Amino acid sequence: MINALANHGYLARDGKNVSLADLITGFKDAINLAPDATLIVSLKALQASSTGSFLTIHLSDLSKHGGMDLPSDPVAEILTLNSHRARRQP
């Protein structure tokens, strides 16, 4: 899901130095996820950080052993993200 946010421009497209604030804003803008729910998801991601800061990650950190699980079907995730975004538009 986090990669889908970057692919759609809700996070930095290069996936580098993504902050907790970026994640909260990206999830809120993309799928209207509450900040507290984003925090729960993000804490696991931030544990995999190789940036030197516990408040930022590179998206590539998430694919390392022990990082977050990667989606089994990334295309389905993108379609879901697009579906949520389309429903929000008037």
Describe this entry's structure for a reader.
The chain has four helices and two strands. By secondary structure, it is mainly alpha-helical. The chain has one domain (2-88). The radius of gyration is 13 Å and the shape is globular. The two termini are 24 Å apart. The model has no long low-confidence stretch (mean pLDDT 79).
Question: How many helical elements?
Answer: 4
The main β sheet shows up as:
2 strands, antiparallel
For the termini, the CA-CA separation is 24 Å
Give the strand order of the largest sheet, numbering strands 1, 2, ... along the chain: 1-2
Number of strands: 2
The overall pLDDT average reads 79
Number of domain units: 1
Q: What is the helix content?
A: 40-55%
Strand content: under 5%
Write down the secondary-structure element order: HEHHEH
Structural class: mainly alpha
* Poorly predicted residue ranges: none
- The gyration radius over C-alpha positions equals 13 Å
Envelope shape:
globular
Features:
globular; 90 residues; 4 helices; two-stranded antiparallel ribbon; 2 strands; mainly alpha
In short:
This protein is mainly alpha-helical and 90 residues long. It has helices spanning 2-7, 20-31, 35-46, 74-88; strands at residues 18-19, 56-57. The chain has one domain (2-88).
